[in-house]
Design brief:
By secondary structure, the protein is of the alpha/beta class. The chain has 3 domains: 38 residues, no CATH class; 125 residues, Rossmann fold (3-Layer(aba) Sandwich); 139 residues, Response regulator (Rossmann fold), CATH 3.40.50. The protein has 12 helices and 11 strands. The strands form 3 sheets. It has a 6-stranded parallel beta sheet with strand order 2-1-3-4-5-10, covered by helices on one side. Helix 2 crosses helix 3, helix 4 packs across helix 12 and helix 7 crosses helix 8. It is globular. This is LacI family transcriptional regulator.
């Protein structure tokens, strides 16, 4: 703590307050302390951050005696017929049930509400699914509760993570499109929205560079779309599309960060009079149920969502049994699904 204090030019008392979670330090200072603590390796030191708590059980837990908290803030964005996070939850639930453990689902990501329902003595561990606020993860880490994150990671909080193999899968999508003859590809999404989106963008960019094609600059507006989770990005996309039409700089293929974005992109293209795939090729990612029902059905990447949920449970149990082992980032293979939204470019 003294090293952190010296690094930031504050007192050791301020550092202690910021890391204790007891208040008394403004948010800006607290965030600076957490950032510095992460950079200086404070969280990586055994028991440096967790005091008077058991970091993890040393032996395998007894089935039927404890539950796993599943924190899923994003589940509120789901529709009945278009599940992504829900499919991951099914995998978690099935694996826990097969091993005799209970499950408590929490969708409220506010720290005060979460801590109110949390009973460390009766909790085996936590699986976080999707984007989760750093402050909440910090509280879980402070309590010494083992956790695994699915489709999310936090640079400040060391933990095991489970992802689809986003980068390699997106490269396969792009290589497929380039093989069809496309040279003007554009990525549609928000690369700051989640780690998965960023990895998909990096896979896109790498495929473009390997094929001698120019990828959009990182400040391109289509890489920074607001409202990708709610669909509010459509007006911004429509304005961009119209401007590209006027300047005769339309891409021939739109590579979307996920299926939900791609489905809305297809709708805007229809409204603008651009046929898919005759006038524009569109691809998605995730293979949600709506991807097959879209018009036309989306070429996408099938993410084995239930398998990710099951693997998260196994990783959590491995962590409990072997707390000293190095943290792992597990990548689950995903497969390209060919449907009707892709074709060779009409201009040859």
């Amino acid at each position: 703590m003294q090293q952190i204090a010296d690094h930031l030019g504050v007192s050791k008392f301020v550092v202690s307050k910021a890391l204790s979670g007891k208040g008394g330090v403004n948010e800006a200072t607290k965030n600076r302390v957490i950032q510095a603590a992460s950079q200086l390796g404070y969280f990586a030191q055994k028991n440096a951050y967790i005091k008077n708590q058991t970091v993890a059980q040393q032996t395998a837990p007894s089935p039927g005696k404890q539950s796993v908290i599943v924190l899923m803030p994003n589940i509120r964005f789901q529709t009945k017929d278009s599940l992504y996070w829900g499919k991951i939850l099914e995998g978690i639930s099935a694996e826990l049930e097969s091993r005799g453990f209970g499950m408590v689902i929490v969708s409220d990501s506010r720290v005060d509400q979460f801590m109110h329902v949390l009973n460390p003595g009766g909790i085996l561990g936590m699986i976080g699914v999707g984007q989760i606020d750093s402050a909440l993860l910090l509280e879980v880490h402070r309590l010494g509760i083992p956790m695994v994150l699915v489709d999310h990671e936090d640079a400040l909080i060391p933990t095991d993570t489970i992802f689809a193999n986003n980068g390699d899968s997106m490269m396969r999508v792009c290589n497929h499109l380039i093989g069809l003859g496309h040279t003007r590809l554009h990525f549609i999404g928000n690369i700051a929205f989640s780690r998965s989106f960023r990895d998909r963008w990096l896979g896109f960019r790498e495929a473009m560079e390997e094929n001698g094609l120019k990828a959009p600059d990182s400040d391109d507006p289509m890489l920074l779309l607001a409202g990708v989770d709610t669909g509010e990005f459509t007006e911004t996309f429509k304005e961009w599309l119209t401007a590209r039409q006027k300047s005769k700089q339309l891409p021939t293929a739109l590579v979307c960060a996920n299926d939900s974005i791609a489905i809305r992109v297809e709708q805007v293209l229809r409204e603008t009079g651009i046929e898919v795939p005759g006038g524009m090729t569109v691809t998605g990612f995730d293979n949600i149920d709506d991807a097959f029902r879209s018009d036309p059905p989306l070429t996408t990447v099938h993410v084995p969502k239930e398998a990710m949920g099951r693997r998260a449970v196994r990783k959590l149990l491995e962590r409990i049994e072997q707390p000293e082992h190095a943290l792992e980032k597990v990548l689950i293979s995903a497969e390209l699904v060919y449907r009707d939204s892709t074709a060779a470019p009409s201009d040859g």
